[in-house]
Write a structure and sequence with these properties.
mainly beta; eight-stranded antiparallel beta sheet; 1 helix; 2% helix; 41% strand; globular
Length: 315
């Protein structure tokens, strides 16, 4: 029997695509893909981001063709995480027994899981807008740390449709205060270093390692790379830093609780002297613009927490 007035059908919202996360068969790498085509690869060794691709397939990070990805040595390229020491160890400091740039980049991290944020629910939405991968490291899982403090690190890497965010939470779980450095050693991929400039640091003073760490006043102009460059900008403004190619914006870097910016390119001779750097002209295809807190020690009191991070936008 037909009813005169049938109840209206309840509309069913279409199922939106979601980010896909997988772990390699050998349990060495975590890969994330957004429904819009962006991709991220992170090694558990060092929690090192080794690839970040935009939706069009363009790679945004430089990875040396000779990089060791088997955990035998730090990865040359991507985004190695520097903690708790930047540079070579100082004999008169508690980090004196650590390797250069600390142990975070040479330790195997635990994959803690993923979370995603929802995008618009409108009909033309392309699914979830981002995915966050969390990794953990603590003194309790390191057999030979050579740093006699209790700590817990949570490293988060968030892939969005136009950007990559990395953030680190440091927890002092012991009873003693300790000092640390932190730096995201980002190797940005560029088409030609000769046509690449960096803006946003024109008013910042820096320590020039090519002059023995000499303090140099603000240059007053964008940075161009014409030789080996190794600078620590210690008064970096809070404004965004931009990397330009042929005068057009390529990357935009913003920072949170990270007062310093390192700009580095090995140039010809330095690159030749690094056994894990390639191809031979690879120095022309990369520029390190590294957000960190390294010009002075950060002191973390017992029971306290520190957090900082960066956001790199691909333009």
């Amino acid at each position: 029997m037909d009813r005169a007035k049938k109840p209206a059908a309840i509309p069913v919202s279409p199922i939106q695509p979601t980010p896909q996360v997988s772990i390699s068969d050998d349990n060495s790498r975590v890969t994330a893909n957004l429904p819009t085509g962006e991709r991220l690869d992170v090694l558990l060794y060092g929690a090192t981001v080794v690839s970040w691709k935009s939706a069009n397939g363009r790679e945004n990070l430089f990875l040396s063709s000779k990089a060791h990805l088997d955990g035998s040595k730090p990865v040359r390229g991507g985004i190695p995480l520097v903690f708790p020491l930047f540079g070579p160890p100082a004999s008169n400091h508690p980090t004196g027994n650590l390797p250069q740039h600390g142990f975070a980049r040479t330790s195997r991290w635990e994959y803690l899981g993923k979370s995603s944020s929802e995008s618009s629910t409108l009909p033309n939405s392309k699914g979830d807008a981002s995915v966050k991968l969390d990794f953990g490291l603590s003194n309790s899982i390191l057999s030979d740390c050579k740093w006699d403090y209790d700590f817990n690190l949570t490293y988060s890497v968030t892939l969005s449709q136009d950007s990559l965010e990395t953030s680190l939470v440091v927890r002092n779980t012991g009873t003693s205060n300790y000092d640390f450095h932190v730096l995201f050693h980002s190797y940005l991929a560029v088409d030609d270093i000769g046509e690449t400039t960096v803006s946003g640091l024109e008013k910042a003073a820096f320590k020039d390692k090519m002059q023995g760490g000499k303090e140099v006043g603000p240059a007053g102009k964008p940075i161009s790379i014409e030789s080996e460059t190794d600078r620590i900008y210690t008064t970096a403004p809070e404004q965004a830093i931009k990397v330009l190619e042929k005068g057009k914006d390529r990357y935009e870097l913003t920072r949170d609780m990270l007062s310093d910016v390192v700009v580095w390119n090995p140039w010809i001779e330095k690159a030749k002297g690094m056994a894990d750097f390639g191809p031979e002209n690879g120095y022309r295809k990369m520029l390190c613009v590294e957000a960190g807190s390294v010009s002075a020690w950060n002191t973390l009191e017992a029971g306290d927490t520190w957090e900082g991070g960066q956001r790199i936008k691909a333009l």
